Amino acid sequence: MPSLHPSLVISLLALPFVTGHEQKPLVHSDAAYPSGKDAPRIAIVGAGIAGASAAYHLHELGGSSSPSITIYEREQRVGGRIKSIRPLENQAEAFEGGASRFSGDDWCVMEAMEALDLQTNSLRPSDRPWTSGVWDGQNLTTPVLECTNEQILPWKAVQAIWEYGLSPVKMYRAVMSNLGQWWSFGQSKKPFDSIRKELEDAGLGNLVTGSAEAFFRNQSISSKFLSAFVQPCTRNYFSRNLADTSGLASLKAGGPSYWRSIAGGNDQLVKGMIGLSQADVHLGSDVVMISYGQERRYRVSVQATDSEGASKREHTEFDSVILAAPLQTSKLYLDDLDLSAPSPLAPYVERHVTLFKSSMNLSPEFFNLPADTIVPYDILTTASSEHNPNILSITHTFVDKDEDCGGPSCDIEDEFVYRIASQRRVDDRELVGMVGGQIQKGSSLADHGISWVNRQAWPHTFPQPLKDGSFVDKVELAPDFFYLNGAEEVLSSMEMSCRMGKNAAKKLS
């Protein structure tokens, strides 16, 4: 993980300014909202979903008097942790190498999709029975319940109670009551400035003060049910264990609505919102310092790299700044703003996504099963004190043949794209083992039925929550200076990022 500027340890974020400290005056504060034809100028740092949402909602709420929006992105693409991969042989196919899914009741994402006329893909086909299994690194079992149950069949409910006692009932009640309250988070026309208070007002305060594991134990949910159901769902959807995430995330993982992706790629959501915002986008532009301006409130210094690799420092002044990227991953210098940091920032965690295409089914031998066993389509995993599998989940996507195709390509077998989320890199030996082969020296993946592979390493997937439960609570750290990533430690998801961007837009509007 890139090191932080040393000054961030003592001068970063959030909360009230240090009492008794002489704060530097805001220079030309009366120029923050210039009159006449000169619209307010707003800088957004980060072109992920949070920054895109802020830009889109600023434009929508501004109407005919929309502000001038400039987006700076360090990478040469937009999307942040959303990265849709399109194999060269078929650009119409898109597979998610980063943030892959959202729930059908995530209203902020769904509203933006409707505005952009985007369609969803269910992460399972509707025309064939679907199966899943839970692997602990040694044994693969068939779960009684699925992570998403829009309608629990009576016999399934009876079977779950027989297996786990009242734990499934307690879990279901916790899910239904708390997810209804989660729906109201950020819904009010009045914006919020304290994430913790907004959560408490929504009735969710008890879900962010400790780990999901502690929350469920307080609900008297058994260890057996946590291991067999709650933890596999949490690892599948949020790539972490119960001890390392919030109760809110685990409740969403076991929610009733099926998880979805966007037809053609999730990156269309980010590109579409930025397009509708009419923002001026600067790719390959790393914001290295924010200080007080002379003509406008803030001076943004950017290290920009052109298409030929040449780098230069640029300075532009803005009336407002929205930080839509985590400070943990930047070297952004903020000393001149005199912000105080009451607690350290949470470190970010690395995760990996591997996509590969093959006509081969998953091998039962890889999961220590008899050779004639049919392996379930989706593999979820669970961890214990003895085992913590590197693999977090394996999911299937069926690749449909082109009905109009002709020639030899139509004679090939149906293919699947497998998506593996893991804590560490999955190497070629493991991939070949998953489809029942054993890689030999000099052989290629194609020799073992793997026609395409794509690996994505994400060194900054999500923040590891601090043990004391602290996080960057305030949204507006200084006048017209906003930070959106404090909520990442509560719930790291596409929907939370979307809501935080909309909230910042409401505050500025």
Keywords:
509 residues; alpha+beta; six-stranded mixed beta sheet; 21 strands; signal
What does this structure look like?
The two termini are 35 Å apart. The chain has 509 residues and is α+β, with helices and mostly antiparallel strands. The chain contains eleven helices and 21 strands. Helix 7 crosses helix 8. InterPro entries: FAD/NAD-bd_sf, Prenylcys_lyase, Prenylcysteine_Oxase1.
How many separate helices?
A: 11
Residue fraction in strands = 15-25%
Structural class: alpha+beta
User: How widely separated are the two ends?
Assistant: 35 Å
Biggest sheet overview? 7 strands, mixed
Overall geometric form: globular
Proportion of helical residues: 10-25%
In angstroms, what is the radius of gyration? 24 Å
The averaged pLDDT comes out at 84
Unreliable parts:
1-36
Q: How many DSSP-defined strands?
A: 21
Strand order of the largest sheet: 8-7-16-17-18-15-19
Protein name: Prenylcysteine lyase domain-containing protein
Cofactor: FAD
Organism: Penicillium capsulatum
Domain Prenylcysteine lyase: 155-506
Protein topology:
Blueprint: E1 41-45, H1 49-62, E2 68-73, E3 84-85, E4 95-96, E5 102-103, H2 107-116, E6 120-122, E7 132-135, E8 140-141, H3 154-164, H4 167-184, H5 195-201, H6 212-218, H7 223-238, H8 247-253, E9 259-262, H9 267-277, E10 280-283, E11 285-292, E12 298-305, E13 311-318, E14 320-323, E15 348-358, E16 378-381, E17 391-399, E18 415-422, H10 428-434, E19 450-463, E20 476-478, E21 481-483, H11 494-508
Parallel strand pairs: 1-2, 1-14, 2-10, 7-16, 14-21
Antiparallel strand pairs: 3-4, 5-9, 6-9, 7-8, 11-12, 12-13, 15-18, 15-19, 16-17, 17-18, 20-21
Helix pairs in contact: 1-9, 1-11, 6-8, 7-8
Protein name: Prenylcysteine lyase domain-containing protein
GO molecular function: prenylcysteine oxidase activity
Pfam families: NAD_binding_8 (PF13450), Prenylcys_lyase (PF07156)
